[in-house]
Amino acid sequence: MIKFAMQNTINELSNQVDIENDKRWIGQKEVKCLHLMLDVSHGGWVILVKAKAGSKMPTHYHPNGLYVFTVSGHWHYPEHDWEAKTGHFLYEAPGEMHTPTFIEDTLLYSVIPAGPIIYVNPCGQIDSITDVHTHLAAVREHYKKIGLTEQDIQQIIR
Predict the structure, then answer these.
(1) DSSP string for residues in the chain
(2) Whole-model pTM above 0.85?
């Protein structure tokens, strides 16, 4: 009989979130994100996005696919004829330009396995690019402002 032994070389990442009052939310009043994991090895991240009704994110696209689950709320891309409501799962194809627009207060769980987000201006030209390292810098700055330490940051990095 063959026996397999498994050993974790890294502790599991376990991250408890207070959806309403967690001080780690980053962003404007209308759209905020909370980083659950930053995968600096592969260039990906996992976030919660909390958006107010009537708000929208800037138009952008991803060179790689990503996954979005609607935990609660109602939203859509004006570029398409579908709307997402609570329980909706979306696989976003690479390169598809979109403008997330929120019809109701919404909570999304998003997994970006790898690659940047490329934001475009109204003419479709690249305005800015964010990636896992941009997110890490924003987390570091925010955590410092709210009194968390580098050890707290290390808890979400893989």
Answers:
(1) --------SSPPP-----TTT-TT-EE-SSEEEEEEEEETTTTEEEEEEEE-TT-BPPPEE-SS-EEEEEEESEEE-TTSS-EEETT-EEEEPTT--B--EESS-EEEEEEE-SS-EEEE-TTS-EEEEE-HHHHHHHHHHHHHHTT--HHHHHTTB-
(2) yes
